[in-house]
């Protein structure tokens, strides 16, 4: 339990970069990535926001509507002004792609855009591969900087490699990007506060400088990050057998959630609900943005002891074969 260096465990960071940038990434070989261990995904976002404020003091951050609520707190406390961009379309319960692209085009050149790499929280709505290509194209054309929050790698498709698709598209298009990675969900290491912040730079020299500045930001905040989670992650990911076992478990977890989506929708349809519940299976990841109103959510809580956020977001991780029928029945009752 000795101190780690300011930038955290080198071995953990190395393995973590491979997950995001690719096992055989040239960018890693060229040492173009400045990366430090971070206090899980939240800490990675906050460190980046502080970095943004220090080195681009007049910049803003564009955040999707809606987003994980803490994004607003993080950039607010880092004193970076916030703008929003269209993301979710309430009628279709899918992506408001045209409006999102318009917002990218209309933002001042060189703006910062926060993107959820996969399994968008709270909506469960991700762009398709084609849409990502277009998003990448427009972000590049405007000289914007894309910052990916990747809190759920593996949770969307069950394969961390597939879930990194958006990032890989941006790399193909030669962007400079930032990534916040977290092991809270995909390794179940919530309380260990283990994650990584990386910034893809122009060259090795710039990466050394950026890493040094990230460490300068970390030092007066927490000196160095915690060691236990870093040891767990680096032990698993650097051992081929353990890594294989982890990948298998991630897939089991994601497939279970996908199965629960099918079961929830199926049960609602079986009950004769006249509403469309297709979005339950179209959406992906840990959350289902059900479309339930705050009043309907209150009824679920008060009459059925079913708990979800008042924006109608169901944590699919809490849905099981044992309670899915009860849940469907209650949803049917409050939406009649
Ligand atoms: N980003 C998103 C989109 C999240 O949903 C979460 C957790 O809910 C996080 C980041 C951060 O989680 P942690 O700090 O536990 O890694």
Automatic annotation (TrEMBL):
Catalysis performed (reactions): L-aspartate + 2-oxoglutarate = oxaloacetate + L-glutamate
GO CC entries: mitochondrion
Organism taxonomic ancestry: Eukaryota, Viridiplantae, Streptophyta, Embryophyta, Tracheophyta
Cofactor entry: pyridoxal 5'-phosphate
Key words of the record: Aminotransferase, Pyridoxal phosphate, Transferase
Gene Ontology process terms (BP): amino acid metabolic process
Name of the protein in its database record: Aspartate aminotransferase
Organism: Gossypium tomentosum
EC main group: transferase
SUPFAM superfamilies documented for this protein: PLP-dependent transferases
InterPro entries according to UniProt: Aminotransferase_I/II_large, Asp_trans, NHTrfase_class1_PyrdxlP-BS, PyrdxlP-dep_Trfase, PyrdxlP-dep_Trfase_major, PyrdxlP-dep_Trfase_small
Assembly description: Homodimer.
Ranges where the Aminotransferase class I/classII large domain occurs: 2-331
A GO term, aspect molecular function: L-aspartate:2-oxoglutarate aminotransferase activity
EC number(s) stated in the UniProt entry for this protein: 2.6.1.1
PROSITE patterns, sorted: AA_TRANSFER_CLASS_1
């Amino acid at each position: 339990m000795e101190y780690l260096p300011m930038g955290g465990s080198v071995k953990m960071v190395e393995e973590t970069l491979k997950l995001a940038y690719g096992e055989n990434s040239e960018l890693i070989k060229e040492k173009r990535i400045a990366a430090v261990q971070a206090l899980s995904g939240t800490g990675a976002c906050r460190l980046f926001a502080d970095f943004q404020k220090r080195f681009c003091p007049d910049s803003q951050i564009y955040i999707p509507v809606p987003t994980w609520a803490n994004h607003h707190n993080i950039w607010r406390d880092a004193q970076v002004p916030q703008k929003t961009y269209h993301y979710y379309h309430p009628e279709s319960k899918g992506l408001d792609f045209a409006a999102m692209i318009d917002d990218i085009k209309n933002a001042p050149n060189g703006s910062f855009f926060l993107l959820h790499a996969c399994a968008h929280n709270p909506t469960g709505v991700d762009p398709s591969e084609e849409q990502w290509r277009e998003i990448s194209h427009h972000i590049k054309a405007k000289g914007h900087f894309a910052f990916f929050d990747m809190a759920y790698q593996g949770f969307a498709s069950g394969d961390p490699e597939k879930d990194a698709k958006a990032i890989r598209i941006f790399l193909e298009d030669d962007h400079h990007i930032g990534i916040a990675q977290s092991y809270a969900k995909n390794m179940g290491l919530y309380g260990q506060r283990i994650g990584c912040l990386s910034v893809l730079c122009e060259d090795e020299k710039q990466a050394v400088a950026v890493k040094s500045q990230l460490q300068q930001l970390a030092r007066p905040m927490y000196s160095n990050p915690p060691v236990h989670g870093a040891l767990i992650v680096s032990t698993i990911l650097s051992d081929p057998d353990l890594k294989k076992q982890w990948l298998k478990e991630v897939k089991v977890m994601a497939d279970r959630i996908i199965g629960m989506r099918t079961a929830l929708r199926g049960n609602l349809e079986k009950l004769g609900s006249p509403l469309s519940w297709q979005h339950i299976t179209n959406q992906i990841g840990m959350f289902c943005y059900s479309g339930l109103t705050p009043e309907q959510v209150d009824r679920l809580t008060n009459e059925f002891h079913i708990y979800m956020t008042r924006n109608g977001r169901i944590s699919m991780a809490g849905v099981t074969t044992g309670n899915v029928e009860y849940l469907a029945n209650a949803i049917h009752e409050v939406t009649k």
